[in-house]
From TrEMBL:
Keywords: Ligase, Transferase. GO terms for molecular function: asparaginyl-tRNA synthase (glutamine-hydrolyzing) activity; transferase activity. It comes from Acetobacter senegalensis. Residues 24-428 form the Amidase domain. It holds the Pfam family Amidase. Coiled coil: none annotated. It is an enzyme of class 6 (ligase). This is Aspartyl-tRNA(Asn)/glutamyl-tRNA (Gln) amidotransferase subunit A. InterPro entries: Amidase, Amidase_dom, AS_sf, Carboxybiuret_hydro_AtzE.
């Protein structure tokens, strides 16, 4: 059920918010053992909020645009009364959050109901949601495969049909990678559009938060509430010039992924090919900046309680903290140069398209994927196509291709659509047209 339909049923009294909330929580408890997407169920808070909403409706008072819609948040968003874990046990002795994160507060002000916190890579440092403390999140379309990360719990909860929308964060691809692997929609908005107040940081100069959902319309309504603005686009999307990113973004793609992107291009009246220079170096710069900022943030705690960290996270953070200043400065210079290049591209095109990942989700027991004819770490290279684009701060929508007859495994594949800063309205309108024409969209996992 779409978010708009759910809200209409609850507002019209066809469906009790409390009943729907109870069913959602029971569903989470019954099914999540297959996926390990949920870390905490917010049962008392959710039921109380749902009862109050039903009373509000019964008394004829106005209700919000997300009335009765249950949602979950990646475990680095503050939830009032709970300790924010950021996927780690090292924060367990922190005081509980005194308030919700700002975007959670805005959603609740429109009568949405938070029902769960969701699994993630420890401190958002990873692309797999393999968490030493809370378990590995499995892909709902095949539980022997990765969900992606670091917002894997958020993507999996939507892909499994357990929640209509969830919140995640994206520093170098942590929304776009799991959205692609799980077959759902994920938006990395323009950097700075959504407030980060009450969200545990990873690399502050790159961090962005955004939603996962099952359709463009659902992404739109949730993002509008969080941003406090509408994303209306009144021009004809057929007049948009669409550029296909080549070079770095054309390597090692599966045949189904290439075919899906070609079908999209063929549906667009105005297209061109675009190659970004030094995309490999831009990706390296994003690695360096992330490592340095993350390492610096955690250095005081690493000096006192290093053994509380997942060993893999600890090693990466310590390595980042030891990076010389000259290396970080060079990475920032390259970032600025690459960002200017990418911004200038939008003088010639309206939307760019690129793959989100090289192919379908790797198996849990699969250590490598093929890149450039070589077997490389699957976990380290899932962000191959997302990391360079993070540097520019532009809105990027991860969109699922539809199921393909040739895809024998019937696993999702995703593409990225990129627009100039502040052009979420155009990006969503363009994607909505493709969704309605059947060129985008993947069904929820069967269960």
């Amino acid at each position: 059920m779409s978010i708009s339909n759910l809200v209409r049923k609850i507002r019209d009294g066809e469906l009790s918010a409390e009943k729907h909330c109870l069913e959602t929580i029971q569903n989470l408890k019954a099914r999540d053992s297959m996926y390990h997407a949920v870390t905490r169920v917010l049962e008392d808070r959710a039921i109380t909020a749902a009862k109050q909403l039903d009373q509000k409706i019964a008394s004829g008072r106005a209700v919000g645009s997300l009335a009765g819609v249950p949602f979950g948040v990646k475990d680095l968003f503050d939830v009032q009364g709970l300790v924010t874990t950021a996927g780690s046990i090292t924060l367990n002795n922190n005081a509980p959050a005194s308030n919700d994160a700002e975007v959670v507060r805005r959603l609740c002000a429109e009568d949405a109901i938070p029902v769960a916190t969701l699994n993630m890579d420890e401190f958002a440092y990873g692309f797999a949601t393999e968490n030493a403390h809370y378990g590995t999140t499995c892909n709902p379309h095949d539980t022997a495969r990765l969900a992606g990360g670091s917002s894997g719990g958020s993507a999996a909860a939507v892909a499994a049909g357990m929640l209509p929308f969830t919140l995640g964060s994206d520093t170098n691809g942590s929304i776009r990678v799991p959205a692609s692997l799980c077959g759902v929609w994920g938006l990395r908005p323009t950097q700075g559009l959504l407030p980060l107040s009450g969200v545990y940081p990873f690399a502050a100069s790159l961090d962005v938060i955004g939603p996962f959902a099952q359709s463009v319309a659902d992404i739109r309504v949730v993002t509008e509430v969080m941003a406090g603005r509408k994303f209306e686009y009144k021009d004809d999307v057929d007049n948009l010039k669409v550029g296909l990113l080549g070079g770095w973004f054309a390597q090692d793609l599966s045949a189904d992924l290439q075919s899906g992107m070609q079908k999209i291009l063929q549906s667009c009246p105005i297209t061109c090919d675009v190659t970004l220079p030094e995309a490999d170096k831009a990706r390296a710069a994003s690695f360096v900046i992330t490592a340095a900022e993350g390492g610096n943030l955690h250095l005081p705690r690493l000096k006192t309680t290093p053994m509380a960290y997942d060993p893999a996270t600890r090693d990466r953070l310590m390595a980042g903290a030891l990076l010389p200043a000259s290396t970080v400065i060079q990475a920032q210079r390259l970032r600025n140069w690459f960002r200017d290049i990418l911004h200038s591209v939008f003088n010639e095109v309206d939307i760019l398209m690129a793959p989100a990942t090289v192919g379908i989700a790797p198996r849990l027991d699969q250590p490598t994927i093929m890149v450039g004819g070589k077997a490389v770490s699957a976990r380290a290279n899932l962000g191959l196509f997302t990391q360079p684009l993070s540097l520019a701060g532009m809105p990027v929508l991860s969109a699922p291709l539809p199921p393909s007859e040739g895809n024998q495994k019937n696993m999702p594949l995703g593409v990225q659509f990129i627009a100039a800063p502040g052009k979420e309205n155009m990006l969503l309108a363009f994607a909505e047209k493709l969704e309605h024409s059947g060129l985008l969209g993947f069904p929820v996992a069967s269960h």
